[in-house]
């Protein structure tokens, strides 16, 4: 099979953030393609505004300076505005749709500076009508003004096009033509697990989350598997974002968006007033429908191993055994319980469940040695320091280890 994108570079989220401001100067476009659910839109809307120095990073629908537009089901008149006859009854003007960052709209929103940076994301561009795609070209006008239809847009717009390819499982996708590609940069996005977990770790739903712990465990083991296509991949890569299924195969497919969904659902299920059995059934169904039954059962087995590891945690805490005695899934399970317990004790000392408040209150206790048991008995002796790092950094979000004790090595 011919690789139509053999000369197209893959780019990580971190690399996109590094280069986006430079690449979009002078109204140049950046086009990124990749599978649905890869986080292209989410990352663009939440991570790029800071890079550009955008003060109001809300979406334009909320009054902010991030314009997220999708013309998938729109014709040229809907995208650029319908015509209306002038008062002279002879000539016609076109009304400006409310969601375009026109000079008029930008002047009358935010701080009123029409030269402030504006992020314009044209989402799912590969599914636009070809006529609407063609209307994008005049946005790049080095010697003039960026125009969309008959409407002048703000001069400092930064333009990102996102889309899918047929190779990504999107059968109706079209390729951007050369007139678009020659107006900027074109990359295939590579939202890998390492980048995603850095992004996810700052989210509330990632704290004390057994699904996250499972993914980190798989990553730390470094196992490889062979795909149906005969490709050898790291197991974490195939679980986190599997090879695109063959045409005609209809099964749930994991992707960054689905992992975020099930991580959020795990946290919600824990707070529900249900029996443990019903919580387990609901979680299994949530996983089955999002990432497929095989990975779902692997996760459920991992969560069960955490429950079974409580006596092992107690043995380490009571100096009956050493953390160095455990490896693999047992080690991850014991570290998970230890992390949950040290955060629980910090919350009890603080009297608050809010992360920032607990961290503020815990600094003095760290200096007194109240949490030395966690670092001395569980983190330092762990044979897999990648697992230990994740556990320590998770605890450090609630407990001010960093800067309060020399025992924190990360």
Task: Report the β-strand fraction as a percent range.
Answer: 5-15%
User: Helical segment tally?
Assistant: 17
Distance between the termini: 46 Å
Quaternary structure state of the chains depicted: single chain
Q: What ranges have pLDDT less than 50 throughout 5 or more consecutive residues?
A: none
Order of H and E elements: EHEHEHEEHEHEEEHEHHEEHHHHHHHHH
In angstroms, what is the radius of gyration? 25 Å
Counting structural domains, the number is 2
Q: What's the overall geometry?
A: elongated
Lateral strand order in the biggest sheet: 1-10-2-9-6-3
Mean pLDDT: 90
Main beta-sheet strand count, sense and barrel state:
6 strands, parallel
* Helix/sheet category: alpha/beta
What is the helix fraction of residues, given as a range? 40-55%
Topology:
Blueprint (H helix, E strand, L loop, with lengths): L9 E2 L1 H11 L5 E5 L6 H13 L13 E4 L6 H5 L2 E3 L6 E3 L8 H5 L10 E5 L7 H5 L12 E2 L2 E2 L4 E7 L14 H4 L2 E6 L3 H8 L9 H12 L2 E3 L5 E3 H6 L15 H15 L5 H16 L1 H16 L1 H8 L10 H23 L4 H14 L3 H8 L5 H12 L14
Parallel strand pairs: 1-10, 2-9, 2-10, 3-6, 6-9
Antiparallel strand pairs: 4-5, 7-8, 11-12
Question: What's this model, at a glance?
Answer:
The chain has 17 helices and twelve strands. By secondary structure, it is of the alpha/beta class.
Structural notes for this entry:
With 410 residues, the protein is an alpha/beta fold. It folds into two domains: 181 residues, P-loop containing nucleotide triphosphate hydrolases (Rossmann fold), CATH 3.40.50; 202 residues, no CATH class. It is 44% helix and 11% strand. The chain is built from 17 helices and twelve strands. The strands form four sheets. The chain has a six-stranded parallel β-sheet with strand order 1-10-2-9-6-3. The longest helix is centred in the last third of the chain and has 23 residues. It is elongated and about 90 Å long. It starts with 9 loop residues before the first strand and ends in a 14-residue tail after the last helix. 33% of the residues are buried. The mean pLDDT is 90.
């Amino acid at each position: 099979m011919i690789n139509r994108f053999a000369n197209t570079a893959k780019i990580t989220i971190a690399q996109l953030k590094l280069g986006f401001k430079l690449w979009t100067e002078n109204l140049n476009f950046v086009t990124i393609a990749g599978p649905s659910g890869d986080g292209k839109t989410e990352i663009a809307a939440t991570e790029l505004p800071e890079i550009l120095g955008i003060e109001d990073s809300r979406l334009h629908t909320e009054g902010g300076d991030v314009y997220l537009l999708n013309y998938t089901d729109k014709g040229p008149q809907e995208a650029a505005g319908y015509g209306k006859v002038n008062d002279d009854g002879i000539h016609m003007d076109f009304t400006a749709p409310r969601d375009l960052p026109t000079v008029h709209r930008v002047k009358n929103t935010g701080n009123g500076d029409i030269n402030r940076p504006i992020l314009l994301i044209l989402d799912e561009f590969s599914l636009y009508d070809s006529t609407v795609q063609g209307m994008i070209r005049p946005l790049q006008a080095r010697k003039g003004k960026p125009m969309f239809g008959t409407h002048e847009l703000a001069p400092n717009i930064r333009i990102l096009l996102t889309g899918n390819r047929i190779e990504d499982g999107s059968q109706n996708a079209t390729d951007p033509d050369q007139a678009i590609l020659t107006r900027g940069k074109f990359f295939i996005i590579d939202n890998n697990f390492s980048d995603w977990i850095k992004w996810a770790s700052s989210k509330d739903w990632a704290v004390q989350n057994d699904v996250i712990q499972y993914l980190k465990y798989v990553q730390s083991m470094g196992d490889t598997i062979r795909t149906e296509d005969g490709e050898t991949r790291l197991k974490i890569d195939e679980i986190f974002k599997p090879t695109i299924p063959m045409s005609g195969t209809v099964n749930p497919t994991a992707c960054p968006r689905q992992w975020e969904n099930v991580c959020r659902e795990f946290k919600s299920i824990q707070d529900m007033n249900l029996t443990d059995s019903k919580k387990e059934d609901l979680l299994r169904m949530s996983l089955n429908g999002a990432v497929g039954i095989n990975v779902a059962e692997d996760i459920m087995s991992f969560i069960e191993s955490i429950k079974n590891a409580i006596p092992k945690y107690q043995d380490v805490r009571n100096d009956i055994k050493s953390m160095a005695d455990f490896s693999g899934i047992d080690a991850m399970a014991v570290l998970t319980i230890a992390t949950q317990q040290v955060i629980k004790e910090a919350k009890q000392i603080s009297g608050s469940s809010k992360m920032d408040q607990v961290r503020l209150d815990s600094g003095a206790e760290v200096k007194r040695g109240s949490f030395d048991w966690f670092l001395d008995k569980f983190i330092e002796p762990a044979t897999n320091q990648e697992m230990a790092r994740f556990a320590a950094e998770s605890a450090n979000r609630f407990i001010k280890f960093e800067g309060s004790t020399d025992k924190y090595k990360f």
